Amino acid sequence: MHITFYRWSRYFFSLFFTICISFLLPRLMPGDPIANMIGQSAHVSDATIIELRQELGLDLPLPEQFLQYLVNIAHFDLGYSYTLHAPVSSIIMERMALTIPFVGIAIVIGIILGVPLGALAGMSRSKKTSILATYGSIALSSAPPYFLSLIALSILSFNFGLFPLKGVSATAGIIPWIHHLILPIAVLSSCIAARNCLIMRGSVIQETHEHYPLYAKAKGLTERMVLFQHIVKNASLPLITQVALDVGFILSGALFIEIVFSLPGMGMLTYDAVLSRDYPILEGSLLVIAIMVILTNIAADIIYGVIDPRIRWQG
Amino acid sequence: MNRILEVCKLSVSFISGNEVVQAVNNVSFDISQGDIFALVGETGCGKSVIAHAVAGLLPDNTVISGEVNYKGQDLLELSQQDLIALRGQEIGIILQNPSRALNPLYTIGHQIREPVLVHTMKTKDRASRMVTATLRKMGFFDPESEAHRYPFESSGGMNQRFVIATSTILSPDLLIADEPTTGLDHSCIADVIKEFERIKKEEHCAMILITHDLTLARTLADRIGVMYSGEIVEMGECKAVFSDTLHPYTRGLIGGLPENGCTPIPGISPPMSRRFPGCRFHPRCTERMPICGQVHPRLEVNGDRFVRCHLCHSH
Amino acid sequence: MRRPEILGSIVLAAFLIMAVAPGTFAPQDPYTRFTPYTPPGSDHLLGTNDMGHDILSELIYGSRVSLFVGFASALLATMVGGIVGIVAGYCRGGIEDLLMGFTDIILMLPWIPVIIILAVFLGPGIWIFILIFGAFAWTSIARIIRSKVLQIRESGFVQSARCLGFPTWYIMAEEIGPNLFHIAFPQCMLLVASAMITEASVSFIGLGDPSMKSWGVMLSFAFTKGALINGMWWWYLPPGIAISICVMAFALIGYSREKWVNFEVRE
Fold first, then answer.
1. What are chain A's partners, defined as 3 or more CB pairs within 8 angstroms?
2. pLDDT for A114
3. I want to staple C192 with a disulfide (CB 3.0 to 4.6 A). Which of A34, A93, A188, C70 is the partner?
4. Are the beta carbons of A146 and C204 separated by less than 8 Å?
5. What is the total count of domains within chain C?
């Protein structure tokens, strides 16, 4: 009971903290809050500004403004982008349609590739392939993801013309969509796989010091069965926690990859918002990304509980 | 009687870095069908290494010489594949610390039926029925609900009985029990002893019982071998060894029993990596003679009694 | 020392020497203008960019900025994490619950978007980056330090120091602190690696300090000014490779001290 309560309060405060940041930033930053709220390069008439000041309640005391802000968020109202002339929530929803499948597919591929590789590397440490996998993973996770994208783009698209150089439009059909996404997904999933491989390798090494793998071997299981039917399951527990915590990092990495490949997802949206100083969009993105990270952590907690009976029983 | 296992001149050494640790030195013994052979000695005398060597469970950095003849075939010469086919089916192994030998993430039932699924063509359903039957035979009232529990929900004693069930479900011809009662409290030890007595009566398998608990050995074993610092120093019929003790070390061990006043043997065992002339036990021996520090005593044979001591030299 | 650690240290030392005295290694002043878009050749080993700046010189001068940002952010984060971890581990009770709960909350915050927003509001600058990185990236260190403190506060020498009546702050600083160094050090190295990647990423979207050209800023300029489209590989490859090698050096040093990575494959 206590653990469950602790977990949920953790999520709650995490969300609350993010909301506080995005509420306070434009109001505390130097300059006119109204300018901070609508963005610098948006062209808005003076009359609208006065109207807005009233509507946003900027003359009210901060607690009242905060209450209003919370009510708005509860109604999925994240403000209005005066640069793109649309509500922030609908713009983000539209861009998420690309980013979520992109990141989701990459995470799944990254797990499918990284987990067995890391498990084998941890089990037979002195094999040449294991050493190669370990150092390869360290090398891969040392390069910024967007730099890997630049290299992939310049070699495969620019020199060999295998993949398109420019981004995909949202209205394009499924085939061009896949064609445009292969390379970005490959880059992101190899970054994720490299990290998973390292975590899994370390986790497997720790599990091999336990007694149950030896006993499983004593029952007549082959080395491979011991690894994949026993050790991998136990070793994946720390991985689940770590992948969930990494999601914020993975998402951020995905944003930069999107920029290099000019994919019209959250990354391009953030990039354009940075260039045009479109504050409402930036704050909305922060909030949405934070919510996604929290949701993945909740999902990870649930999966962890399904795998580990010791946690389930405490619940 | 039918000889199941013959161990001939078994030596095991571990190589770590530049150091060679001789853990088992020239050990020979044999076991017949239906017999329990106990190997006793202090912690670190190499008795568990023998268990692991017979089962082929030693890590890669070990050097093994000698012969381990199981029903006429040398287990040390066997291919991994043939060994895997024997382990868990014909050769059952029970490891110390039952709660760690069981995988915390699988149910008891799943882990007991694993050897059945690996070694026979039985379906999961029939294997599960076998598990229930085995548990019922062991005196569990509600085997089905036991099978659905997890290791962390049971005490160490219960878990050890589950491990025994796992190792004997396919009625092995040879059972190796490595410190089966270590860490268990008294009532649990009584349960485990009852279990072994039942196995001896019903299954007629040969059994190696490895323990530092002399009382347990006396209760269960037909024959007993006393080990000190990697060597067998005394071996014979269990009753004979206890009533007519020949080796000072064995006398010391018996003197250390609670009913004999818990008199400990002075000093500690020498490290396995240290070689020195003379008897391995002479630095601690109370009946030391000048020759004991110079000449390593041979293992003297007198009918069914074996002893390695200058005191008992046949004149 | 193990082989990967030696390799990492050598590479790192080379970068550090470059960063301390860029003037002695750079063939040109990084702001002198030559013919723009020159491919690598005998005059300019790595060619020039759109402004005609010598890329090799820019790279050498950039190492100073990139390494400084990496070290400063990681040190700040290590200090914050170390203090939180020591206090939580030593005081136990309510303070520990509070601090570790707070750590768990910060752990889940996506801090790269937060850095982006703050940089947009406050204008680009390395100090803002260092401050925000320090304010968010300390969580892993705090958790590790806390568990180590919990472990050693029960050990004999701390107990005896307490019995002798030494004040709490003294015990923390004198007895526990040195024991934590070998745990904090590899973590700090990994944080430098992570800070350098993050700095490069944030700079890439134009939020780097243009007056202090780090490797990330160089990459950003190369990308926005079409180095890729025009096939000028000498413009965007060197800074990216420099970041990757430098980060890898830090990672090798950090990982080789970690028990779980277990580099000792030859048993």
1. B, C
2. 94
3. C70
4. yes
5. 1
